[in-house]
Amino acid sequence: MSTADKLLLALLLVVAAVLGFTELMFLPLRMDGAILPRLANLPVPASALLALVTMPWLSRAASDLSPRGLVSASPLLVWLLVIGVFGLAGPGGDIVLIPDWRTLLLLACGAFPAAVVLGSRVGLPTDDHR
């Protein structure tokens, strides 16, 4: 890997960490009139939708940099680490992961599509990575 690739990978890891933290903070989002309009206090899975879009993109971008498994999986690993650490021992010692279906949806929408992208890249010859 060149120096530019290493810098780009570091940027991807920072983006994965920031996205994980942001998704955690918006996990309890509801349509209760505080941020979103009031609509029967319905939960809004915006965090899961954000993870569904960004995690496969981050995984593909990392796997384009290097065919090595650890490099390719590093954004997913950083995202899971941030979700685990800040979700269970969040800011001020609060538990941010709510015992709700939205937590499972966030984990599924972030980890599963990224794992599918990584799995699809494993069997490719190294020439196809660039």
**Structural shape:** elongated
The profile of the biggest β sheet is: 2 strands, antiparallel
How many domains, as an integer?
1
Task: List the uncertain runs.
Answer: none
Number of strands: 2
Give the ordered list of helices and strands: HEEHHH
- Report the structural category: mainly alpha
Side-by-side strand order of the widest sheet: 1-2
Helix content: 55-70%
- Tell me the Rg in angstroms: 16 Å
Keywords: Membrane, Transmembrane, Transmembrane helix
Transmembrane segments: 39-58, 70-89, 101-124
Tell me what the structure shows.
- This protein has 130 residues and is mostly helical.
- The chain has one domain.
- The protein has four helices and two strands, in the order αββααα.
- A two-stranded antiparallel ribbon has the order 1-2.
- α2 packs parallel to α4 (101-122) and α3 (69-88) packs antiparallel against α4 (101-122).
- The longest helix has 23 residues, at 3-25.
- The two termini are 12 Å apart.
